[in-house]
Every structure is written in structure tokens, then in C-alpha cells.
Amino acid sequence: MGKKRVGFFKFTSCSGCQMNAVRLLASSPLLDHFQVAYWPMFETAGWSGRLDAALVEGCVSTEGELEELRRVRESSDLLIALGECAVDGGVQSIAVSSPLEEVAGRVYEHPSWIRSRRVGRLGEYVEVDVEVHGCPPGPETLWEVLISLLLGRRPRLRGHPLCVECKLRGLPCLLLEAHKPCLGPVTNAGCGALCPSLNRVCEGCYGPNVDANWPSQREVLRSLGLEDRDVDRRFRKYAAARLSEE
Ligand code: SF4
Ligand code: SF4
Ligand code: SF4
Prior knowledge:
12% strand, Rossmann fold, binds iron/sulfur cluster, alpha/beta
């Protein structure tokens, strides 16, 4: 089996997804099977040539990033959106709820100096072959993605909501039993119900599940005393770019 030629790319993001990939690769023999053509966390020289796969962290928030994303797409057999910023817009995409100038004006003294564009997820601009949820994706998820690359098959990522993992672990339900505003029913599985296992509600960091019943979840949260704007904030925290399209 020949080595797969891959590149890791970073757009607007916190580098947490890359850090998890580094941690996994450094603690396993996986790295021996890849030729890493580009990884700006370690090497600032540019890249060229064809890639078997591009793993792209971050959303798009500048014209330069959009240009680079299109170049990455053209040069890669597979484009993998790595983490919530890339897949759904991430935390920074909460900015899409207001005009860019207004948002910049709330933060910066000279908003006219800011050279940003509306925050967007990768799938708004190019075809994405694999969406890897999580902020950041955990080691099991990343392992599956990298192994599937080596085996030449699609990764088997979990499509069910987080509550399934929670029930499989036999955890008590924080939403129904403790009446806490858990987002498990509308969030993707993948983390192994980490927060409920620590008696904390899910905040939705694995992104919105494709079959999420938003009206029902809203009603449940309202019944716990949350106002609609608080419900909206919770729903949009990791995926405002995606949800603003619906
Ligand atoms: S998805 Fe989360 S961990 Fe990954 S880059 Fe974005 S903010 Fe950071
Ligand atoms: S605690 Fe949260 S994730 Fe677990 S079953 Fe209840 S709603 Fe679902
Ligand atoms: S329980 Fe929810 S917020 Fe916590 S890690 Fe899992 S998906 Fe993220």
C-alpha cells in the first residue's frame, strides 16, 4: 500500500482540530503511512502538486481564504472538512446574524480597517467529500477518518443523535430527569456523551443532526423556562452559518 499524499489546511479557526490530529498521529504508527505535503503548523513553505486528500480546518472569512479553498479543491481528490468550523461555520459564524459592518463596529475601534467577508462553511463554496463533526473531533472520529483514507473507503461516521450514545452508556437523562437544557436530541453523536457523563448538558459541539426535530426541542427548552432568544443562541452556537441557510 503506497503512502497517501495529504495536506492539512487551516482557515479561520482555533487550531484545536489540528492539535487533536497531531496528538493522534504522534501517538500511533499512522503517520508512517502518509506523505504530508503541507501542514502550516509545522512548515510554512507552500505546497504544490496533486493531493490524495486535503484535511481542511476552519471556516472561510476572507477573500484570500476563499481563493485558497478553491485551489485546494482543484488539487485534491478528496476534500475533508475537519471540525465544526469547516462543516457548519463554528462559533465564529454567530456573526452571520448581523451585517458584517455592525459586528465589526461592536468589536473594533476602526471597523473600516477590517478586511473580512461573511463567515461561511466550506460546503457553501466548494464540494465537500466528507464532513467530520466535532469541536474538535475526538480521537475515535479522527482515527476512523485517517484509517478510511488508507483503506480507500468512506469513513463510517455516526449519523445518529447524541442521546443514543448517552443511552448506550446507561447515563441518566439530564433533560427529562434533571430538567436541564441538554441539546443531545438535536446534536450529532461522536463524543461518547462526554458532557452528560460528567453531569453537564450537551452544548451541541458536534453540530446539528440531520434529522433534528428543532420545533420539538424548542418546545422542551421553553418548558424549562428558556426564552426564544436564549434557545436560538444555544441552537446557533456552533452552527450559525449552516442554520442561517435553512
Ligand atoms: S472546530 Fe472547534 S476545535 Fe476545531 S478549529 Fe473550530 S473552534 Fe477550534
Ligand atoms: S442527557 Fe442529554 S444526551 Fe443524554 S439522553 Fe438526555 S437529552 Fe440525550
Ligand atoms: S456532549 Fe455535546 S457539547 Fe459535550 S462534547 Fe459531546 S457533543 Fe460536545
